[in-house]
């Protein structure tokens, strides 16, 4: 049996004394101070009075948009200084302007927001209340900003892209004979009708519309051009021919 003295000796051998380290304490203190400085700096950088935005650098060709519009959008969107500006928010706000097709936004040290914009290019008036661009996308700016002399499209909602594509194809075919498409109509049954700038209405129907446009041009150039002022409409909805409706025909 172990004596009391032996038990005390065994117990004392298991105790460990941790040495005090000034180096460890200094490292901990340095970490705490550094974290506090970083937090303070991050807080200060987010304040509006820290490096406030003072300039707007606008890039692009401006016709319907001006720098004043862009400045107002930035003023309404930003809520902080240089480091706090959310360029994504500014980009989205700029692209909500009706004549902006797309925009890119960046920061230029130390107090400038750079905005590069591409304006919409209107190709036609859509149903009297909007415009379509060359990609067939609808946008709705104020009517007083509509460009003059645009062709007009009338058609079902959702058919903007289809009508745009057909118009561009038909325009290339028709223009060489000296006429322009003034109005393009697509009815609920899918039938196309053209109204040209010389007053002639061309009925194309629903099928083989491109080939019917080509046939119209061939016949118009060879036979009908000289009598264009007498023609009211041309019906191309025949397999191998056409029908001409004359003005003042009794």
Explain the overall architecture.
By secondary structure, the chain is an alpha/beta fold. The protein has 2 domains: 55-119, Ubiquitin-like (UB roll), CATH 3.10.20; 122-246, Cell division protein FtsQ/DivIB (Rossmann fold), CATH 3.40.50.11690. The protein is built from 6 helices and 12 strands. It has helices at residues 4-13, 22-45, 67-77, 87-95, 160-174, 209-224, and strands at 55-59, 100-108, 112-119, 122-126, 130-133, 138-139, 152-154, 181-186, 192-196, 201-205, 231-235, 243-246. It has a 9-stranded mixed beta sheet with strand order 6-5-4-7-8-9-10-11-12, covered by helices on one side. It has a 3-stranded mixed beta sheet with strand order 1-3-2. Strand 8 (181-186) and strand 9 (192-196) form a beta hairpin. Helix 3 crosses helix 4. The mean pLDDT is 86.
Structural class by sheet pairing and helices = alpha/beta
The coarse overall form would be elongated
Poorly predicted regions are none
Number of domains: 2
Q: Would you identify the CATH H-level superfamily of the largest domain?
A: Cell division protein FtsQ/DivIB
Q: What's the main sheet like?
A: 9 strands, mixed
Mean pLDDT, to the nearest integer, reads: 86
Overall CATH architecture of the largest domain? 3-Layer(aba) Sandwich
Strand order of the largest sheet: 6-5-4-7-8-9-10-11-12
- In terms of DSSP E residues, the strand content is 15-25%
Spatial gap, N to C terminus: 140 Å
The percent range for helix content is: 25-40%
Topology pattern, helix = H, strand = E? HHEHHEEEEEEHEEEHEE
Rg of Cα set: 37 Å
CATH class identity of the largest domain: Alpha Beta
**What is the strand tally?**
12
CATH topology of the largest domain: Rossmann fold
The helix tally amounts to: 6
């Amino acid at each position: 049996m172990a004596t009391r003295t032996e038990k005390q000796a065994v117990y004392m051998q298991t105790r460990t004394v941790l040495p005090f380290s000034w180096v460890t304490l200094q490292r901990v203190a340095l970490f705490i101070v550094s974290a506090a400085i970083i937090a303070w700096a991050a807080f200060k950088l987010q304040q509006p009075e820290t490096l406030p935005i003072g300039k707007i650098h606008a890039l692009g060709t401006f016709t319907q948009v001006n720098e004043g519009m862009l400045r107002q959008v930035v003023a309404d969107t930003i809520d902080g200084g240089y480091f706090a500006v959310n360029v994504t928010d500014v980009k989205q706000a700029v692209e909500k302007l009706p004549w902006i097709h797309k925009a890119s936004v960046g920061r230029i040290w130390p107090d400038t927001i750079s905005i590069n914009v591409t304006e919409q290019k209107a190709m036609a008036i859509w149903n009297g209340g909007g415009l379509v661009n060359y990609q067939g996308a609808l946008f709705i700016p104020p009517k007083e900003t509509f460009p003059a002399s645009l062709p007009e499209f009338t058609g079902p909602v959702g058919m903007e892209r289809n009508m745009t594509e057909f118009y561009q194809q038909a325009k290339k075919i028709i223009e060489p004979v000296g006429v322009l498409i003034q109005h393009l109509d697509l009815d609920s049954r899918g039938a196309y009708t053209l109204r040209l700038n010389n007053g002639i209405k061309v009925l194309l129907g629903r099928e083989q519309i491109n080939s019917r446009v080509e046939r119209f041009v061939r016949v118009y150039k060879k036979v009908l051009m000289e009598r264009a002022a007498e023609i009211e409409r041309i019906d191309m909805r025949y397999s191998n021919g056409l029908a001409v409706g004359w003005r003042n025909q009794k």
